[in-house]
Write a structure and sequence with these properties.
By secondary structure, the protein is mainly α. The protein contains six helices and two strands; from the N terminus they run ααββαααα. The radius of gyration is 20 Å and the shape is globular. The two termini are 14 Å apart.
Length: 220
């Protein structure tokens, strides 16, 4: 089982590679890959926020902490589950907002250039993933408002781990792998070994982060 630090580091590597390669050719469209990479990074962090391992961490007791709460030798108390859920919700909201931004930029750029929408597997899969992420966010909010049962929360968690995280990873990996294959086919490897090498590193990091974060969701 991958440690939390490795999963977070992999997500950060993918984000860094995406930003670095995107900065090579800045335009309005650059907001799309950067927003989507941030979407993935925050989705991973949101999943990690619910990790069982995090429940064993401690924090300084707040002013509203019960008087009978167990305090360790350092004067700290276990991180409450509600704090984990609030953190997860905040990260999820930010992630979905970035996904909508990235999708909107892509749609706008294609519209002004009279290019067809959803004409590629990447574009179609991306639209489905953004829709799933929005449904996931609405479902989580509804569960919180209705004080959902444990079974309903489990459905929410499993749909995120089995659909949203893998969906983001698969969509991004498909696009990156297609680009890398095209670069190799055009013999770009000769003059762009650095660029292509970082692209492959980003793909590997993407898979590691997605699999690790999804596993944490199933454990939670």
């Amino acid at each position: 089982m991958l440690p939390d630090a490795a999963i977070r580091s992999a997500a950060l590597v993918f984000l860094a590679v995406t930003v670095a390669t995107t900065l090579q050719d800045l335009s309005l469209f650059s907001l799309h890959p950067i927003s989507m990479a941030l979407f993935f990074y925050l989705a991973v962090e949101g999943a990690m926020a619910l990790s069982k391992k995090k429940r064993r961490l401690t924090m300084a007791p707040g002013p509203d902490a019960p008087k009978d709460v167990k305090v360790d030798e350092r004067g700290r108390v276990p991180i409450p589950r509600v704090f984990q859920i609030d953190t997860h919700a905040a990260l999820g909201f930010a992630a979905v907002s970035l996904a909508i931004l990235g999708f909107g930029v892509e749609y706008y750029v294609k519209s002004i250039n009279s290019r067809p929408h959803f004409a590629t597997v990447h574009g179609l899969a991306g639209a489905v993933v953004v829709a799933l992420a929005c449904v996931q966010a609405v479902g989580g909010f509804a569960n919180r408002q209705m004080r959902a049962s444990r079974a309903q929360w489990r459905v929410h968690a499993l749909s995120g781990g089995a659909a949203v995280l893998p969906g983001i990873a698969a969509t991004a990996f498909l696009h990156a792998a297609t680009w890398t294959a095209g670069a190799i086919q055009k013999n770009w490897m000769i003059g762009n070994q650095y660029f292509v090498g970082w692209g492959v590193a980003g793909e590997v990091a993407l898979v590691v982060a997605a699999v690790g974060a999804a596993a944490r969701v199933f454990e939670a």
